């Protein structure tokens, strides 16, 4: 089911209904006389809540955008390490590097098939038998197998093990970022501060109903769509502009071509 129409309707409601409710509360309800008596509150004083809301929003944005950069870098390093493994294996004489190349290719195929599946984009990434974990374990076992290592020069052997470590470490980083879940305390605090800022706007403009409505519409019309986009993008692999497995898919294509040339050579 396409959820975008529902999201758009909720956004419209979140922008229109709260200002109308605040306007009715301040202009037509039984509390209206009391709220009008607060007209002496100065605007700079009530702006403290808006400042706190803005600061918290900046912190959340920074955390989300940093996670995206970390995920993109982790995938690039993982893909480069696997390409390096393929290059090293393709230089092992007498096709001795073929098991390593096959294991690297199978690992990348498992990553693309399971780790980036639609049902694995949430916090629960899939079960162990439907993830890239068995494939990366197999890759490590093949590389560290004595019969394979003996065919490689000591200096190159060290380089191969180093690239394996890089691939495994960056896989862990990528998987951890795919499992990101929203911090309920942070988002609840952010929504509470937005509500407090909205009340501050209402108190400052309580004597002018039209100005109150316009100020609330502008405030919520600018913040709520941004908050929704930010919340949907809390994981680098979700939201409006999610990261894709392009780097890993390109590494897989490269490994396949190297494997074909290696078999013919």
Overview of this protein structure:
75% of the residues lie in helices and 0% in strands. The protein is mainly α. The protein has a domain at 74-181 and 242-265.
Task: Produce the secondary structure layout.
Blueprint: H1 4-27, H2 32-36, H3 43-89, H4 98-115, H5 133-144, H6 146-149, H7 154-178, H8 184-204, H9 209-232, H10 246-264
Helix pairs in contact: 1-8, 1-9, 3-4, 3-7, 3-8, 3-10, 4-5, 4-10, 5-7, 8-9
Oligomer: single chain
Rough shape? rod-shaped
The end-to-end distance, rounded to whole angstroms, is 50 Å
Number of strands: 0
Unreliable runs: 121-126
Helix-strand category: mainly alpha
Integer average pLDDT: 88
> What's the order of the H and E elements?
HHHHHHHHHH
Radius of gyration: 27 Å
Major beta-sheet overview: none
**Binned strand content:** under 5%
Estimated helix fraction: over 70%
Q: Can you count the helices?
A: 10
Q: In a nutshell, what does this entry contain?
A:
This protein is mainly alpha-helical. About 75% of the residues lie in helices and about 0% in strands. Helix 5 (about 135-145) runs antiparallel to helix 7.
Q: Characteristics of this structure?
A:
265 residues; mainly alpha; 10 helices; rod-shaped
